[in-house]
Amino acid sequence: MFSLLPFAKNGVLCPNSIIKQRNRCNKQLPLMLLIPNQDDDHQRVVYNISEGRVYNNIRLQVPFSKRCCGSSRGWLATVDTIEQGCLVVVLRNPFTKAKLIFLPPLDILIAKYETSYNVHYVCKVILSIDPTMNPENYMIVALYGRWPMLAVIKAGQNTWTYPSPNGNFDDVIFYKSKVYTLEAMGDIESLDVFSSDNNPS
């Protein structure tokens, strides 16, 4: 994790500055987001583990009333709910203050007695690339459900794609234009999400 503090202190971050700093520092401990001392539902301060220091002068727009289900390429994925119990993932970048990305509802049925747990049905969300750097060609993969399944969506699409067969995955990552999944039994599968055939192999 690279430090964004030299740039965050000056306001909005430039993507080129982020890349340069990432190349410079790749062995630092990650920064942590903390809730400020005063009541604030929509901001976080930064804690630098290496320095043991809280940067109160840096306020990032990250609501703590929403569950974070992933962080990828500098973006945070939070879970929201809409009418009829549908789950919606929202992508936000607290460093660049880019426009929020609201993804379509996931195809998931939540029992009435589990509504208080519904935000935990989205286990993980990852991005293929930074949407700021390539807004027309990024891919998002979500791991969701009681027995986690995969959902895939490309930039500009209005609905998720659900690979088949699908279900009971423990983890998922992007690597060289492919998605690799870890099944509950320990098997590893690959999925070429950029092809028309989105079936695990």
What does this molecule look like?
By secondary structure, the chain is mostly beta strands. It has two domains: 1-65, no CATH class; 66-196. 7% of the residues lie in helices and 37% in strands. The chain has two helices and 13 strands, in the order H-H-E-E-E-E-E-E-E-E-E-E-E-E-E. It has a four-stranded antiparallel β-sheet with strand order 4-5-6-7, with no helix packed on it. Strand 11 (169-175) and strand 12 (178-183) form a beta hairpin. The protein is globular, with a radius of gyration of 18 Å. Mean pLDDT is 76; it is low at 1-12.
Task: Describe the structure using short key phrases.
single chain, mainly beta, 201 residues, 2 domains, 3-stranded antiparallel beta sheet
Q: From the alpha carbons, calculate the radius of gyration and give it in angstroms.
A: 18 Å
Structural class: mainly beta
Coarse shape = globular
Binned strand content: 35-45%
| Strands, total number | 13
Number of helices: 2
Give the structure's gist in a few sentences.
With 201 residues, the chain is mostly beta strands. The protein has helices at residues 5-8, 15-24; strands at 31-34, 43-48, 53-61, 67-72, 75-81, 87-92, 101-102, 122-127, 139-144, 149-154, 169-175, 178-183, 188-191. The two termini are 31 Å apart.
